[in-house]
Design a protein that fits this description.
The chain is built from 21 helices and two strands. The chain is mostly helical and 420 residues long. It comes from Paenibacillus rhizosphaerae.
Amino acid sequence: MTSSQTHRTIDAIWRIESPKLIAGLTRMVRDVGLAEDLAQDALVIALQRWPESGIPDNPGAWLMTAAKRKAIDLLRRNKLRDEKYAEMAQITELYTEDDLERNMDGEIGDDLLRLIFMTCHPVLSRDARVALTLRLLCGLTTDEIARSFLTAESTIAQRIVRAKRTLSSRKVPFEVPAGEELQERLSAVLEVIYLMFNEGYSATTGDHWLRPLLCQEALRLGRVLAEIAPEEPEVHGLVALMEIQSSRFKTRVSASGEPVLLMDQNRAQWDRLLIRRGLAALERCRKLGRPLGPYALQAAISACHAQAPAAADTDWARIAALYEALSRVAPSPIVELNRAVAISMAFGPAFGLQLVDELMHEPALKEYHLLPSVRGDLLVKLGRMDEARSEFERAAAMTRNSREQQLLLKRAAECGGSPN
């Protein structure tokens, strides 16, 4: 393996392991900022050693061990009180490779949920919670987060630093709260898990369209949360959404790693067990007798696709109606764009294009690559190939995911003519 290949592999490992690493370290030091610093120290050591020694069989355990040693060294250097040092020493036993599987499924997995509740504390603003989540739990860089927020990288960096400082200064506990405090933070926690899942389902950047391990972790956390808060319909709604969306993983990319669009997927290969689990979670949500919230409505939309044996059998009129309901409870330009797609499928591309054109000057969608992509698709159906090619090229220039960019350029080429 070449040095560049090793570094790419280490980067991939870091994206997978860093959330669990930071969560476990936060449990130790009770300071999320310090935990991230310690995790970064472990990464630096790995970058120095692994190109020569090779990547260990269990890189997660190796990183955790290195980070915990750094934590112990820090405690010694800072000359903390003897009792504090003794307390920390009792909970900082080093991880061995034999312990890895047990720890990934047990203690560290629980720490991730505690970390989410910690970063969703009301002392932080919504923007701070989202930025911190994308940084700590999804492994995005400040530059990638800045692009998502459509703001300066320095602004995001300051926001994240202030958020970590606030959590430390306010001594926000590292725990899953109970009672009213849990209820107060629940919507923020659901949003964070939803963000995690979406980043895994359609990666913002990089060479892969999917990050399935991130989706799996989000789904696992959602299932745990459903046990903690069984009377909350939106918890079941989010779990239903993630279960059904996860059922498509095997068909969302080709053997060569290229994205496969929903209408082109082989539905016979969708995971029927996950679909049944998703439909059951959606039914639990409905049985609680309250109006469907944003996650439950999205799950109902996904259920329409899951229950259609073939793409041609999809009940697009119902999907359009569900998007209309979603636009009332959670209005956003992206919901309107999805509603336009559903209307185009139910009533024809000309109707959809009219709605999409109304969104062309929406500030929030100015850098959103799916807007020109959707418009290009509608123009193809209307036979306006030159315009469609321009839209696909514009979308390709806007996306930061290389696989998606390749797909959009391929669609542009299929429209014929000369590239712009």
